């Protein structure tokens, strides 16, 4: 039974979720179970920012429920979240939390709550209520998903991108093209990644080894 009350009536919320069915259910949950007014629902942050520029500030949402992963956690999106929070909007990350390193980076940047998409609806509503009340909350499932592997190497952003692309089967030529470098440079990244794993006693002699390690560290599915 949903018991927690909201700080004030007339609370407005925006939902950014790239998957249509997930977005529709989130809107239904927030309006039907929480009694909130969903003023905007879309698949990406730029559309929300455009919509807000055409609105009086009194119509802006109090809370943003957003998914930034796996493909939207770029610097521009993270900067947009930071700007919205600076403007006074609360931000709840409702996410697959994958890849883990990217989710950890978003958490480190700062949000007002984090819930996993594997959480039950009651837990999500608890996070929504806490965020609107000015509290910071991370569900137990989200904490587990964000937990760092103490034996994972420290990879640069470019090294992570290379590993993500290479570990799912892309040849060096494709990896190099996707990140905008020469093939020799891409090979150097792979060699450096292997060295970092080897320094931790986790040997990656082959591409299959790297794929296995990347899965263990939550970098690829």
Task: Please provide a written account of the structure.
The chain has 221 residues and is α/β, with parallel strands linked by helices. The chain folds into 2 domains: 135 residues, Response regulator (Rossmann fold), CATH 3.40.50.2300; 60 residues, Arc Repressor Mutant, subunit A, CATH 1.10.10. The protein contains 10 helices and 6 strands. Strands 2-1-3-4-5-6 form a 6-stranded parallel sheet, sandwiched between helices. β5, α5 and β6 form a beta-alpha-beta unit. α7 crosses α9. The longest helix is centred in the last third of the chain and has 17 residues. The N terminus is likely disordered.
Total domain modules: 2
Distance between the termini: 35 Å
| Global morphology | elongated
Task: Give the topology string: H per helix, E per strand.
Answer: EHEHEHEHEHEHHHHH
Given the structure, what is the number of helices? 10
| CATH top level class name of the largest domain | Alpha Beta
Write a concise synopsis of the structure shown:
The chain has 221 residues and is an alpha/beta fold. The chain has 10 helices and 6 strands. The radius of gyration is 20 Å and the shape is elongated.
